[in-house]
Design a protein that fits this description.
alpha+beta, 6 helices, single chain
Length: about 150
């Protein structure tokens, strides 16, 4: 059973998926570290899926139920500021000019909306866990830590 089938058949609509994605990128030393540009497009991809996307926990927390058009300046500012505050980058000096940045972010998506995500969206994630009133159930686990 693939990830999309599990979501469609096993979980209640108001359970939510905590999807973790890891970003690795270079950043100039003389500049203050910021979120990577692709985070905004990924946030739009994960957080605006489904009929009730504006009820996703992350969107509800950021915009407090106010109608915001995805891709608008208000959307970009809200998403950017939220992830700047809640996601702390791990900074490693690479050389005299650049730092290596590793940043993990969580996208929280209601199951009713996550049902609309294509299977390929789950392949890019580090991990995905469905949070229910009965506990946490892993959908996608990080296999990079498994060694033979």
């Amino acid at each position: 059973m693939n990830t999309s089938e599990k979501i469609r058949s096993l979980f209640a609509p108001l359970d939510y998926v905590a999807a973790t994605k890891k970003y690795e990128y270079m950043w100039p030393k003389q500049e203050e570290v910021d979120i990577p540009p692709e985070l905004l497009s990924d946030a739009t991809r994960y957080l605006t899926v489904g009929e009730y996307w504006d009820r996703n926990p992350t969107c509800w927390y950021i915009f407090q139920g106010q109608p915001v058009e995805p891709g608008s300046e208000e959307w970009k500012a809200g998403i950017s500021n939220f992830y700047r505050l809640v996601s702390k980058p791990v900074i490693t000096e690479l050389d005299n000019e650049r730092n290596y940045i590793a940043l993990e972010v969580n996208f929280e998506i209601l199951v009713v909306n996550a049902k609309e995500l294509p299977e390929s969206a789950f392949e890019e994630l580090q991990c995905a866990i469905v949070k229910t009133s009965f506990g946490d159930f892993p959908l996608v686990q990080d296999n990079s830590e498994i060694t033979n």
